[in-house]
Structures are given as C-alpha cells and as structure tokens.
Amino acid sequence: MLILGIESSCDDTSVALLDCSQNGCFVIKQTTASQIGIHKKYGGVVPELAGRAHAEKIIVLLEKILKNQPHPDVIAITSGPGLITGLLVGVESARALSYIKKIPLVAVNHIAGHIHSVQISPRDQKPNKIIYPALSLVVSGGHTELIYIPKQGRYQKLGATLDDAAGECFDKTAQLINLPYPGGPRISSLAKNGNARAIDFPRPMLNQDNYNFSFSGLKTSALYYRQKNPQFNPADFCASLQQAIIDVLVGKTIKAVRQYRPKSLLVVGGVSANPLLRQTIQKQLRQFNLQTNCFLPAKKYCMDNASMIAVAGYYQAKNKRFTPWRKLKADPGWAIA
Ligand code: KG4
Ligand code: ZN
C-alpha cells in the first residue's frame, strides 16, 4: 500500500511517501521544510507565522514528492493535536487532494504518529516488530505522556505533564543562558563537558505515586540559580539540568514498566533524540532485569515528520478507518486517550 503522509501540526511542513505492507513500512521519499529559522528569534513557535510558512511550502513539497511516482493508495494526514494555524493548512490540502484524485483519507493523531515512528524503516533495514502490550513515553516540545497500549491502536493514558513538556523545559532554560531555539540539542551537547552533580536541581514529582510530570518548577529553579550565580559554568548548568529531567523521565517510565510489564517500550518524540535519555533507559531496563524490549526511533525520525504519520495511517487504513473528505476537520485538542 502506497501511503502519502502529511504533517503540519507545529513548525515542520513534512510530506512523505511510504511503501507499507505486512513486511514493514519503507520510506520511498520524505521531504521536510523546517521553520526553525523563522521562529528562532522569538525563542519559540509563533502560531501566526507557522501557519503562513506551512501555506507557502505545502504545495511545493507535495508537488516534489508526487512527481514521477504512482498514485498513492491512501493519504494519512495529521488532524490533531497541534496548532490550529498549521493543522488547517495540512488538512485542507489533504481534503483537496483526496477530492480531486479520489484517494481515501485517514485522520492521524500526531501522538499516534510519534508512537509509530519506531516502525519507520529505511530501505536497507529490517523493520522493528512491536509485540503488545506496549508502553510509550512520548516526550517532545509539546508533550510528555506515558501511554499504555494493550494492543495495536488502543491507547490508555497513564499520566502526562501538568504544566510544561520536557522539551519545553529544555527550550526555556536554554533561553535563560542565551542558547538559540530549539534548546534541547544545544543543552545536550554542552552537557557533555559538564558535571551532572554540580547543581542540585529538583526532580519534580519523581517520588509521587502517579505517572504525572511537572517541569515548570524546574525551570523556575534554573532561573533562580542563574540569577544568584552570574559567574556560572554553562557546561555544569546544562549537565545538571539535563540529568534532573532525565532522572524524572526514566524514573517514572521504569516504574510504569515494573507495574504494567509491557513486552515493548517505545520512547518517542523530539526529546527521545537525547543520547543520555536513550542510554539511561536501556541501562535501567537491563539493571532491573525487565524483559521489555526498548524501541527508539532513528534520530532522523524523533522530531516531527510525515513518515511517522504515514505508518500510523497504514495501520488505520488496514482496519478501514477512513474519513470522508467532507468530514475531515482539524482538531487542535484531539486527545489520544
Ligand atoms: O517532536 P518534536 O519535533 O516537536 C513536538 O511535537 O513538540 O520535538 C521538539 C522538541 C524540542 O523541544 C527540542 O528541544 C527537543 O525536542 N529536542 C531535544 C533534543 N533534540 C530535540 N531535547 C533534548 N535533547 C535533544 N538531543
Ligand atoms: Zn511532535
């Protein structure tokens, strides 16, 4: 099944063409226009500017991806959650294409897309086979959630952040020390030369008996530390902050693994590109002797991309969960569970 994926929920306009079958989902082509250059000077995504940039790029990208390719069998489109300004551009383009070319549509939840990102295969690689039940830690600029997946396509939210997302905490604290947006990759690279025990930042909610998170207090502690210590060491600051975030993410995830005993753990979203998070979670699974296979997306597919939307769309299409173009709507608050 040839799937055209379209993603425009935040600051990446991305389209991809995937060849999906029971043997796996293989990327034929993906092309993405990042808006980082536009939002950088504001320290975060500006919705109005994001919508305009998506509108400028989407047709160009669709034209590029569909050139000299056979007709897709299905269009998989992110219809939520996300910024309404971006979602509308993707959704309206998908509706128009579906109507004109008579291609069926599937409406994909952006979080389900991230969860399926571990199943994207480059041409020369054997696809990952997820065994259920699974558990997913979704960590990005907009989300921090622990989701239990008893079987393919069924989602049960165990907990989520009560305020800022983990990626947002990276981005906002990076701003405090004048690092450009997005701050996560900058903090993780500066942290390599720092001492993670230099500053004792709090580990919010780590010892609470639930699966929720909170990162706004950590951000405030970082601000106070910065104000009280004008001569601070940036590498130590980054290493200590990163360690605090990772301790909370890994601590809560391992606790959920020990309680729910999933066969697979899927760590996904932009923050899953963080090397310390990747290493620590795998190390702790081994240390506790938990018989859970950990799956991580290829680095290229941690951030928002259209291939992950195409993979999630493939599973929906297989189950005939289509949405007629007349009924498709952007849904900025679409909760996965
Ligand atoms: O999934 P994504 O592209 O967009 C959302 O759906 O939010 O995630 C972007 C987030 C940003 O907050 C960025 O700082 C964070 O992922 N990020 C990282 C790293 N790479 C990206 N955070 C920590 N360490 C990284 N290496
Ligand atoms: Zn995302």
From TrEMBL:
> Which residues take part in binding substrate?
V138, V139, S140, G141, G142, D171, G184, N274
| Domain Gcp-like span(s) in chain numbering | 27-310
InterPro entries in alphabetical order: ATPase_NBD, Gcp-like_dom, KAE1/TsaD, TsaD
Q: What class of enzyme is it?
A: transferase
Q: How is the cofactor bound?
A: Binds 1 Fe(2+) ion per subunit.
Please give the catalytic activity noted in the UniProt record. Answer: L-threonylcarbamoyladenylate + adenosine(37) in tRNA = N(6)-L-threonylcarbamoyladenosine(37) in tRNA + AMP + H(+)
Sites where the protein binds Fe cation: H110, H114, D304
Q: Chief location of this protein?
A: cytoplasm
Q: Where in the cell is it found?
A: Cytoplasm
What's a Pfam family in this record? Answer: TsaD
**Top-level division of the source organism's lineage:** Bacteria
Q: Which cofactor does it need?
A: Fe(2+)
What GO molecular-function term can you cite, just one? tRNA N(6)-L-threonylcarbamoyladenine synthase activity
Q: Which one GO biological process term can you cite for this protein?
A: tRNA threonylcarbamoyladenosine modification
Q: What is its EC number?
A: 2.3.1.234
List, alphabetically, the GO terms of the cellular component aspect. cytoplasm
Family, according to the entry, reads as follows: Belongs to the KAE1 / TsaD family.
What is this protein for, i.e. what is its function? Required for the formation of a threonylcarbamoyl group on adenosine at position 37 (t(6)A37) in tRNAs that read codons beginning with adenine. Is involved in the transfer of the threonylcarbamoyl moiety of threonylcarbamoyl-AMP (TC-AMP) to the N6 group of A37, together with TsaE and TsaB. TsaD likely plays a direct catalytic role in this reaction.
Q: What is this protein called?
A: tRNA N6-adenosine threonylcarbamoyltransferase
- Native organism is Candidatus Magasanikbacteria bacterium CG10_big_fil_rev_8_21_14_0_10_40_10
